[in-house]
Amino acid sequence: MADDAEAWFYAAQDAADVGRARDAARLYERAIDACGTLHPIARDADLWPRAGPPSASARAALIASVASNALGELRLDEALEAGFPSRAHDCEPLRAAVARFEAALRAWPYNAPALCSLAQICRDSGRAEQALALLDRLLALSTLDAAQDDACSAWRAAWVFTPRRAAVAAGAMTAALVRSQRGEHAAATPILRRFGLRLRLSPAVWAAAAAPASHALPCPAPRLTAGQAAVPPVRLFADAVPPALASTLCAAFAPGAAFWRQTGYHTASVEKRYFTFFYDVRAARPSNAVEALIAHLHPLLARDDVACAEWWAHTRPVGRHPGHELHYDLEEGVMEASGRVLHPLVSSVVYLSGSAKSGPTIVLDERLDAGQLARRCWLAHPRTRALLTFDGALLHGVLPVDGPVGDEHRLTLLVAWYGEDARRASSRRRSALRPQGAVPRVSRRTTWPLDIPLDMACGGEEELAQATASALPATTRELPIVEIDHPWEEVTMAPHGVAVHARPRRSALGARAEAALEIPTHLDQHFFLRSPDDVACRHRV
């Protein structure tokens, strides 16, 4: 029974590995059927008895559970293709995936990948309490095979401990982030120590992210000449985007708009496929609504040394996104070609939609290869039609916050302003979608440029002239910026200064200490660090 089920399972995996999802699903079903009547595994330790292999019934329940989880992952892939978590929150593939993960846990309550997937779905659906309950169950599992080496050790590694270690690491990082954004820093501390993490954004930063506060208005920056540094380094302007432009852009980049689908936006990050668009700021006339916006915003920078701009867009569902990793803006093609670090003169965020509860942008006074942590940071909460500008060499990202879950999205246009055209110095391939590429021509498969027409954005020659005038927009006013000192703290210190001693975590099944968890690359937001150099290392060639 179990041997037949195992054979069907491996056949299903082979089909899935070559992209035959339908065949894989059918074969996983055959594996489950071959397991016969299931007797759920009551204890995790039933899979490694003191003498001999696990019973046939325990093996069958395990295989059925793992096959159900695999079916859930196939259906979850369909839900992701349908747009989850940005949209499709109650689509049939998502409901089917949840049912499969729950079936996996009925057969084997200690199925770590199923626990992790269900927790992620709950988190992405805005159900943080349910997510944390599942994550607590996941983190209680041992990742160490405490049984003596025997003929079954390779089998246990393949079926239990290798997938479990990956799932526990992913779940632990998710739990640490959710606990931190909810202000539960004492609960996050032992989780972070399991990764060997030594530094984290302080409770003051997370508190400011969750509850925006008003601080003193910064002084206006003077007009600068080439080579001067921006003072102050971070500024926020209200009503910076004209209403007509904002309306056009919100429609063009709405959650269901052609742009996201035709550019493959929702899978681009996972595939390490980055694309942005180039605009010559010194050009006589913009050619689309985004370029008209860039021309309109240029005077707010108070700089006369900007030569070109690079723009891209992001959309995140309010209350369901995990933030955006801390990073530096730089032209990576130039770095790869020559080793030269080229930052924008100014980086900026245009908030087209979203609210103060949709996650603030965080900017830290920390520079690449400076060799020291930030001594202060600034937080800017989204405000419709506002513009955030900051020194393009500074570390920055987006913090997640708990908030009401609905259909609202945090829609932003990002504009990096450069003092030189770096395209010729770049080593990047000239693919259709690439960093600092041209807006593509309209074709049967690429229609999204039709959604950012210049005429609809500006209404006519007079409106266009006003939108691209060199004078500061008349209605724009500067807003307060939240500023926080000492944004980093040691993980070994709990809130209120109570020391937390880092001890090796013992396995629940034996006396040996479990190894430190590996940080999953796709979940490493750099809100927690092993060393001050972690973010800089990511950007080095």
Commentary on this structure:
With 541 residues, the protein is of the alpha+beta class. Strands 3-4-11-6-9-2-12 form a seven-stranded antiparallel β-sheet, covered by helices on one side. The chain has a five-stranded antiparallel β-sheet with strand order 5-10-7-8-13. The relative contact order is 0.14. The termini are far apart. About 5% of the residues have low confidence. The chain has 17 helices and 15 strands.
Please tell me how large the radius of gyration is. Answer: 26 Å
Distance between the termini: 52 Å
Number of strands: 15
Percentage beta strand: 5-15%
Short description:
This protein is of the alpha+beta class. It has helices at residues 2-17, 21-34, 56-81, 92-107, 112-124, 128-139, 153-181, 185-194, 203-210, 243-252, 258-262, 265-268, 289-297, 332-338, 454-458, 461-467, 534-539, and strands spanning 199-201, 234-238, 277-280, 308-317, 324-327, 346-351, 361-367, 376-380, 386-391, 394-398, 409-418, 477-479, 482-485, 488-490, 528-529.
Task: List the keywords.
single chain, 541 residues, alpha+beta, 7-stranded antiparallel sheet, 5-stranded antiparallel sheet, 36% helix, 14% strand, TPR-like_helical_dom_sf
